[in-house]
Design goal:
The complex is a heterotrimer.
Chain A lengths: L1 H31 L6 H18 L4 H22 L8 H23 L13 E4 L2 E4 H23 L1 H11 L1 H6 L4 H23 L9 H16 L4 H21 L4 H16 L13
Antiparallel strand pairs in A: 1-2
Chain B lengths: L19 H12 L2 H5 L3 H24 L8 H18 L5 H23 L4 H21 L1 H4 L5 E2 L5 E2 L2 E2 L3 H25 L1 H16 L4 H27 L1 E2 L8 H12 L4 H18 L6 H15 L3 H13 L22
Antiparallel strand pairs in B: 1-4, 2-3
Chain C lengths: L10 E10 L2 E11 L4 E5 L6 H8 L7 E6 L2 E2 L5 H6 L2 E3 L12 H11 L5 H13 L14 H14 L4 E5 L11 H14 L2 E5 L3 H7 L2 E6 L2 E6 L1 H5 L2 H8 L12
Parallel strand pairs in C: 3-8, 3-9, 6-7, 7-8
Antiparallel strand pairs in C: 1-2, 1-4, 4-5, 9-10
Helix pairs in contact in C: 3-5, 4-5, 4-6, 5-6
The chains are: A mainly alpha, B mainly alpha, C alpha/beta.
Amino acid sequence: MESFIATGLIGISLGTQYTLLALGFTLIFGILGVVNFAHGGFYVMGGYVAYYCNVILGLPYPFAVLMAMLSMAALGWLFEAFILERVIEDHQATLMVTMGFYLVMATAILMIFGAESPQFPFPVTGVWRLGGIYFPYANMIVLGACLAAIVFVYWLVYRTNIGRGMRAMSEDLPVASALGMRTKALFPFAFALATGLAGGTGALVTPILALAPHVGDSVLAFSFLTVILGGLGSVTGATCAAFIVGLIEAYAAVYLGGSKGALTLFALVLIILVVRPQGLLGREVRRS
Amino acid sequence: MNNRVPKSVPAEIRASLFSGHDWIALAIVSLTFVIPFTSTNPQVLSQTNLILIAATAALGVYIMQRLDLMSFAVPSFMAIGGYTVALLSMKLQLTDVFVLAAAAFLMPALCAIPLGALILRLKGVYFVLVTFVLTEIVQLLLFEAGPITGGSNGLVGMPAVKIFGMELWDNPHVLLTTCGLAFFSFIITSVFTRWFRSEFAAIETNDVLAESLGLAAWKYKAMAFSVAAGVSGLAGFALVNMLLTAHPSSFAPMSSVNYITYTIVGGKASILGTLIGALLLVSATDYFALSGEMSPGLFGLLIIVVTMVARGGVVGVVSGLLYRLAGQSPSLKNGDHDLGGNGEKGQ
Amino acid sequence: MTTHSLSAGALHADRIAKSFGGLKVFHDVSFTVPAGGLLGVIGPNGAGKTTMINIFSGRLGLTSGQVMLGGTRIDGRSTFEIAMMGLVRSFQHTAIFNGHSVETNLLSALRFSRRDRSVLERLSPLLDQFGLIDNWQRNAEVMPYGLQKMLGLTMALATQPNMLLLDEPAAGLEKSERANIDTYVKFAREEFGCGILLVEHDMEIIKRLCPSVIVLDGGRLIAEGPPTDVLSQPHVINAYLGGSDEEDSDVTH
């Protein structure tokens, strides 16, 4: 029972991480109609920026996380404005440039930091105990920070004018433009928001999980899983799906072992894609 | 209406099955048969081997591109083909190259039929995502299905394949097998895509219109998916035969990105683009591998550049230049008597 | 009225209804286009006219009712099957194979409907008059809108249908080009013996061509009869004046 609860806690904290990644991913798809293959790259690079600030420069960890978010948001902004924007009409082209950008990012990290996994410990150690349940403080802090970020995204999307504009655009681009939304200005903003989140998540999570140049691959795969499960472009769907994915992954790792958990997830997602391509809570995709 | 002579419909000019690009590509591939007989340099042999395998695998991407679908499924079908060959030769002692090639083509092609029935309804990004997920699943299955696939050890110790009872075991002969498989794949792909070029081009440009005119688009999509799977399977055979091992790492999900890159950078409009893309990029990988793991970054940069400034890829740019040198306008397909002529679209 | 005896090739809608989710967009509409006949369909935007064409051509399923072509039930069949049975639609916006020549576009229509080149000879007066022969080798994508539209219509006719569904053929055409629609409709009926269901906003064209029209409003059939009679009925006028603003747009690609 205790291990069941402890596993559940791990599942939930995984769920919050996936939510942050999936929210960014789904915002980009919902608003720009782009599947961002570079999303995992922003996550890894966020991790490395935090590592550089915290370990190499000796800056405080919270500041390092902030730097990771800001720098990834800036990079995302530049990428959107100067590269993605120019091919935004052609879905295959957007796929190619985000994929290309991911390869460039991964190689840049490899060339700067090397292939070795750097030592990037979480600054807080210790374990919280209640009866037989163990939960590291580090995970707890990350859980809290991720939850705060999720609340922030929801606030932004549902309670602000920018969010209303973004949602209007994901509903119907021509209508939103007709209503005077400055669509072009919102595109890089939405992209930067999403990549900033990915960078922040990387900064928070890589000290606990792993930091290496290639971890973006699996992050991308899990972002895919989450958004497909939840429905591309659906914010609520992505959140629900992220927790489902996190919990299944955690429990499968404990009770099934090996890669069976991942296999279960992928099979589940494949079935969902076939039966219900718009995902659990998604709408029919609009053609870009 | 006015008193002019009514004009009648101009006579049709029949287009040949293969375009110039097809002939060049087939000529290059058939020229590689010379290499196993003239060279013993292991570097040359292995490079040619790698280029041909890469080009053959990338044909799977090329075929699906005829339908405007971006497929990440190539490594899955390569794995099915490769493991089929490994199992047949190790468990059943079937080593005849023709039997193995037939199995490596048919097994993935058959698997693709039910799979295609499920996923070919999806378009655009959904097709991309589902093929990506499929590749991840196949990779995990290779690890999990230990009793059949050997799990993380893979299947090691394949016997050499035979042609008419003669063993093809040393490096030149392994390359010869690859040459044969690649040539066969290029022939299948070019005949298949050119034979149905009108249908494919129509589905690519406007599938709704094509269907409303009476075209059963799903049949062509299913056929294309199946042939693409079969050709990928042949590439899997060649790869497994070169390594003498079937291992999950040979069919890593991210390798699908490489095959896409070859097709796009070389030029997705013709089969020649796939070949040139594989030729240039595999050589570049080899060159840059000397100075660190830079090739993915180079690939990435090339993908971005090609997508943004040269949609036709290397072949598109070069043939555009040649047209200009010859004083012709490259902007419109000259002599487009069939849908999907050999010109570049949207240039 | 399940066993309605119909002449071969007539298009008959029998109490067809369609809802999306809980939203009913089409209510129990029945009518018949006789073989070789011509029926106009008018109605304000959002009346369900394009939805109706999408249903007949197999892009949308029905919620209830049935559609018969001759003696065969066609609802629920796929688009290409219906097309091969002789019911072919045109599209409201231009629908051609972009990036290909006029010739290629027409040859594709022939190929997909398994017709031979002799159809082109029969079509040549039309092709000549629309100016398509003068643009024979030109990339259809860069031709003026009017020409593209006439090419799309001619492609539908090149499949030699026995029933044509025309979705606002005159939409987007200049006033001077609209006579082409008259020519096209007359040609299709006289030379090809085609029945036509003509959805159109241009009342002049409707009055010129259609002996009879039906009026749709909010997914209901509210009137039918000769155009001049129908258009003078008060509830038809009301429907137009108070018509919903919803865009009755086609899902083109």
